[in-house]
TrEMBL record:
One Pfam family here: DUF2179
Gene3D superfamilies assigned: 3.30.70.120
Name by which UniProt lists this protein: Uncharacterized conserved protein
CDD domains: YitT_C
Any single GO CC term annotated in Swiss-Prot or TrEMBL for this entry: plasma membrane
Top-level taxonomy: Bacteria, Bacillati, Bacillota, Clostridia, Eubacteriales
Listed transmembrane segments: 21-42, 54-82, 89-106, 118-137, 158-180
Amino acid sequence: MNCLLKRVRLPSKHFLKAVSANLLVIIAGALLIALSLNVLLIPYGLLTGGVSGLALIIFYLFKIPVFASIIVFNIPIFLWGAKEINLQFFMYSLAGTLALAALLPATEGWVPVPQVDLLMAAIFGGILSGAGLGLVFRGHGSTGGSDIVAVILRKKKNLGLGEVSFYSNLLVVGISMIFFPVNTGLYSIISMFAAGKFTDVIITGLNINKSVVIISDRSFLIGKRIMDEMRRGVTYFEGTGAYTSEKKAVINCVVSRFELARLKSIVAETDPGAFMYISDASEVLGKGFSAPK
């Protein structure tokens, strides 16, 4: 008996804790999506992207509950995805889909519908929906539908997630133009755009850092000042000028947007002729920045 117990590897406490935390995040995200639909999008006749958008069209035309259409549409998608996506994403996505389907009827009437104009409903409905979707993604899941299709097509056809999301939204808007007034589709586009932007905000955070590349004849002095005065690490690369064929040390470093002005000042004081270019680094993991999740 003892030998048998040794062979059976029970899940560790760390694993169970991680799964529980992810499920709570997914449920919280599904709750926000359900509220956005019940409080802002459905009362104002707006649409959202993907399978949820198709479910809304069915609801507006035939009064079939949104949660029922979401379940029906997702059955073939999950059957398709069962063999194509990894088990963890499959199970978390199943949890997200079931949570959304359960919370949609459960949250009806929780919050009174605010009296706002259609534009505000579209924007804030999209923001609330995007925040919920971002939380679901942070829980390593999805709400099924086009998200699972996107993962499958990325694997099979090398299509990007953004492409699949764009085409699924385009399909919803195109269908809406046939059955509903034009302004419904146009305001829904605004809502989808707000949702996409706020999903990115939740996933990557508001703290956009800056990746800086500096090419200078005094690279080592600039690098030393960055390390001493800003307490930021630097990396040196060896570069060769195409015109002069001279070898130079190229500096690469990452700073917060609040530190960028100080970095520019250091470069300008040390070498006014230095060449520098700056780009956004939406997510930086490591010492001095975010811890790996």
